[in-house]
Specification:
Distance between the termini: 30 Å
Organism: Streptomyces pseudogriseolus
Radius of gyration: 22 Å
Keywords: FAD, Flavoprotein
Strand content: 25-35%
Shape: globular
Low-confidence stretches: none
InterPro entries: FAD-bd, FAD/NAD-bd_sf, RIFMO-like
Number of helices: 12
Number of strands: 21
Mean pLDDT: 93
Protein name: 4-hydroxybenzoate 3-monooxygenase
C-alpha cells in the first residue's frame, strides 16, 4: 500500500488528479463523469481496446441505471438501440407463467450487451470528452495510498519503461483479480458466500425462442434464456461447480435446454451454433469498506454478485455514478461529503442486492438439489408470485432494482 515509487526515465513527470485503474463499465463511467465536470484523469487498462470492446458479458440494465447514464449524457446509443423487456416467464411443473413486471410497476428492463455499452463509453471518454487512456499497460503498481501524494506506476507496452503518474486519488475499477483489490488484501474485511452450484454460460447464434427472458425451474436443474439480439441468445444451464465446458457438446446442451425449458404450449427452441461455453461457479463476495486512504474501489474490485439476479453490471454503474460525482465535488468544490459517505452508501445497496440474489437462488435451484423440503419451499415461492398481488409487486420492485432508495 505504501511502496516507494520507483525511479523513472520518463522525459517529464506525469500527474492527473485521478488515476482510474480498469477500463470496464465502472472505470470508463467514472472517467466520463470526471471529464464532463472538467476534471483530468488517466484510465489505465492492461488489455487492448479491441479486447475490452469485444468482451461479451452482462446485458440486462435496470431502468434507474439507464436514467443515471442518460443524465450524464452516456445513454444515446443505448436508448436508440436497446431492447426493452416488460415481462419475463417462469416455467415450472410443465406450465408457462408469464410475469408482467411493467404492468405492476410501470418500469422495464433494458437489454444492451455490455460490449456495446463499453464501446460507447470508450468512444465518449476518449473521442468526445478527450480523456487520457493507456491500453495494454503491464505490471500496474500502487504507491503511497495512505498519504496525500499517491501515485500509480506501470510498464509502457511500447517503450518497456516504467512510468510513474502522480495523483490525488485512485479509482480501483479493475475487477476481481485486479491490482487494486490485491492492494487491500489483509486490511479489508471480505465476506464470501458459495452457492455450491455452477452455471454453464452459453451464447448461441440463434434467435430467441420466446420474446422474453425465460426462467426454467426444473428438478434436473435451472435453465435460463436471455435474449441479446435478434441473432444471438444467451442461455444458462445449472451444472456441478467446477464442471468443464467440454463435457457439454452441442447435442447435450440443446437436449437439456429443451427438457428444462419445456412447457405446455411453448414454442420449440431454435437451435444454433454455440459460440461461447463457460462454466461459472456461483459465488459472491463483499469487501468492506470500499475506501482505503486515497483508494476507492468500485464494481467487481469491491464486490461480486453471482449473475443469478443480473445485478453485477448495475451495481458497478451505481458505484461509478457515486464515485465520479463525489470525486468531482471534492476536487472542484472542496466538498468531501460524497467521498466520506461513499463506502457506506454503496454497501447498503450491495447487501440489498446480495440478499435478493440469495433469495432468488432458492427460487431457481431449490427444486433441483434432491432435498424435498427445499423443493417444496421453492415451489411455494413460485406459486406465491402468481397468486398474491402483494408478493408479485414486491418481487417486481426488487427484480427491477426500484425497491429501495440510497
Amino acid at each position: 500500500m505504501t511502496e516507494t515509487p520507483p525511479s523513472t526515465n520518463s522525459p517529464s513527470p506525469q500527474r492527473f488528479p485521478v488515476v482510474v485503474v480498469g477500463a470496464g463499465p465502472a472505470g470508463l463511467t467514472v472517467g466520463c463523469v470526471l471529464r464532463a465536470a472538467g476534471v483530468d484523469c488517466l484510465v489505465l487498462e492492461t488489455e487492448t481496446r479491441e479486447f475490452v470492446e469485444g468482451r461479451p458479458r452482462a446485458g440486462v440494465i435496470e431502468e434507474p441505471v439507464v436514467r443515471g447514464l442518460e443524465r450524464r449524457g452516456l445513454a444515446g446509443n443505448l436508448l436508440e438501440r436497446a431492447r426493452r423487456d416488460t415481462a419475463c416467464e417462469f416455467r415450472f411443473d410443465g406450465e408457462r407463467h408469464r410475469f408482467g413486471f411493467h404492468e405492476l410497476t410501470g418500469r422495464h428492463h433494458w437489454v444492451y450487451p455490455q460490449q456495446l455499452l463499453v464501446t460507447d463509453l470508450v468512444r465518449e471518454y476518449t473521442d468526445v470528452r478527450g480523456g487520457a487512456v493507456r491500453f495494454g499497460v503491464r505490471d500496474v503498481r500502487l504507491h503511497g495510498l495512505d498519504g496525500d501524494r499517491p501515485s500509480v506506476s506501470y510498464v509502457c507496452p511500447e517503450s518497456g519503461r516504467r512510468e510513474v503518474v502522480g495523483c490525488d486519488f485512485v479509482a480501483g475499477c479493475d475487477g476481481a483479480r485486479g491490482v487494486t483489490r490485491a492492494a487491500v488484501a489483509g486490511r479489508a474485511r471480505v465476506a464470501r458466500h458459495d452457492y455450491g452450484i455452477g452455471w454453464l454460460a452459453l451464447l448461441a447464434e440463434a434467435p430467441p425462442s420466446a420474446d422474453r427472458v425465460l426462467f426454467g425451474c426444473h428438478p434436473d436443474g435451472f435453465a435460463g434464456q436471455m435474449p441479446r439480439s435478434p441473432e444471438v441468445t444467451r442461455y444458462y444451464l445449472q451444472c456441478p461447480p467446477g464442471d468443464e465446458p467440454e463435457n457439454w457438446p452441442h447435442e447435450r446442451v440443446w437436449a437439456e435446454l429443451r427438457r428444462r425449458l419445456g412447457a405446455a404450449g411453448a414454442e420449440p427452441l431454435t437451435e444454433g451454433r454455440l459460440i461461447e461455453k463457460r462454466v461459472l461457479d456461483m459465488h459472491d463476495y463483499v469487501t468492506e469498506p470500499m475506501a482505503f486512504g486515497r483508494l476507492y474501489l468500485a464494481g467487481d474490485a469491491a464486490h461480486l454478485v453471482a449473475p443469478i439476479a443480473a445485478k453485477g453490471l448495475n451495481l458497478a454503474l451505481h458505484d461509478a455514478f457515486a464515485l465520479g460525482d463525489a470525486l468531482a465535488a471534492r476536487l472542484l468544490k472542496g466538498d468531501g461529503t460524497g467521498l466520506a459517505g461513499y463506502s457506506e452508501s454503496c454497501l447498503r445497496r450491495v447487501w440489498d442486492y446480495q440478499e435478493f440474489s440469495q433469495w432468488l437462488s432458492e427460487l431457481y435451484h431449490g427444486g433441483a438439489g434432491g432435498d424435498p423440503f427445499r423443493a417444496g419451499t421453492a415451489l411455494a415461492r413460485l406459486r406465491r408470485l402468481f397468486s398474491s398481488p402483494a408478493a408479485a409487486a414486491a418481487f417486481a420492485e426488487r427484480y427491477l432494482g426500484t425497491a429501495a432508495r440510497y
